[in-house]
Design a protein that fits this description.
This protein has helices spanning 54-82, 113-124, 138-150, 161-167, 196-207, 215-225, 238-246, 259-267, 311-319; strands at residues 250-254, 271-277, 282-290, 296-299, 308-309, 327-331. The protein is of the alpha+beta class. It has a six-stranded antiparallel sheet, with helices on both faces. The longest helix has 29 residues, at 54-82. The protein is elongated. The model is unreliable at 3-41 (pLDDT under 50).
């Protein structure tokens, strides 16, 4: 029997991808024209992938771009804060510098807790004040002067602002400053005709509470001033000032014993031993203060009844005769 020859497959039912455009019977192939269908092995059916959604892709891209922009902004902020250099190695915090010392102005004659603190500090630093008693005496002044000299400060013997700063302690408290006494509670008459200078100085020291107004002090001042029975004090009031310094007082000599100069010294809180004359040689008196009417309080060691002088009277006493003139200004 003649063998049937299969014709070329009909491709009119396939799309461009080679997939059938319409369903076919599973297991059957197209038969040749006029012939019966020839059974074939069943072929797997290919499933097409779901087509991509353009809108979905664009949304994903936009989100990624936003995330990238946020990361870039964070990087810029970090670089601006820390820079491109490595972070510095942390160091230990430094200790705060101590504050400079401070305290009230103190000088010889002052007392109180600040003086005690000053003495304690001086002793701790190796400058011995010869005791810690809260009393600023000659030994405390000597120790303070030694400290000031060692620290290249102005040597004054006074605890001022610069000295406290160098001492390095902060001190507060009430200071008791010395006050000169006025009046005649310490009046003493000279024991003979040539001790008016030592006796006037004795009253000046008693006014400050440094020495008692008695014969022992007069005798001490005779030695310190060099007074003799033949000349009295052998010079002007500078010898009185020097003797006052020897017992721890502050003193200076003023060569002009005018009422204005004496009044200025008294208003400063100082005592005055004034050199003048009674018309028969030189004479010293102690000027204790000012009365309410402006006249001078007088303690004359030779004339107990003379207790005041006006400006003209004081000027006549101090500047009429050719005796040594001037006065010793004394304070503590």
């Amino acid at each position: 029997a003649p063998v049937a020859t299969a014709s070329a497959p009909d491709t009119s039912n396939f799309n461009v991808t080679g997939l059938p455009s319409r369903p076919m019977s599973a297991g059957m192939d197209t038969a040749p024209s006029g012939g019966a269908a020839v059974p074939t092995a069943a072929a797997p059916v290919a499933t097409a992938a779901a087509p991509l959604n353009a809108n979905h892709i664009q949304t994903e891209i936009t989100q990624l771009q936003k995330q990238l922009a946020a990361i870039q902004a964070q990087c810029k902020a970090l670089m601006a804060q820390f820079g491109t250099k490595p972070a510095p190695t942390p160091t230990k915090p430094s200790k705060p510098k101590p504050k400079p010392g401070s305290g009230p102005t103190l000088k010889e004659g002052d007392t109180g807790a600040p003086v005690r603190a000053l003495q304690q500090r001086l002793q701790k630093l190796g400058f011995n004040p010869q005791g810690i008693d809260g009393d600023f005496g000659p030994h405390t002044e000597a120790a303070l002067k030694a400290f000031q000299k060692a620290k290249h400060l102005k040597v004054t013997g006074t605890a001022d602002k610069q000295t406290w700063a160098a001492l390095g302690v902060q001190v507060k408290g009430k200071v008791n400053h010395p006050h000169i006494k006025t009046g005649r509670s310490f009046y003493i008459q000279q024991p003979n005709g040539w001790t008016c200078g030592p006796t006037s100085l004795t009253m000046a020291l008693a006014a400050w509470g440094v020495r008692p107004a008695d014969g022992n002090t007069i005798n001490e001042m005779v030695r310190r001033t060099g007074a003799t029975s033949s000349t009295g004090v052998p010079g002007n009031a500078s010898l009185i000032a020097n003797a006052a310094k020897q017992v721890g007082m502050q003193a200076k000599y003023n060569p002009v014993g005018s009422p204005a100069n004496v009044r200025a010294a008294l208003k400063a809180g100082h005592g005055v031993v004034l050199n003048g004359s009674l018309g028969i040689g030189g004479h010293f008196i102690y000027v204790a203060g000012l009365n309410a009417d402006g006249t001078f309080q007088i303690d004359d060691p030779a004339r107990p009844t003379v207790t005041r002088m006006t400006d003209s009277e004081l000027n006549a006493f101090a500047n009429t005769y050719s005796n040594p003139r001037g006065f010793a200004e004394i304070w503590k």
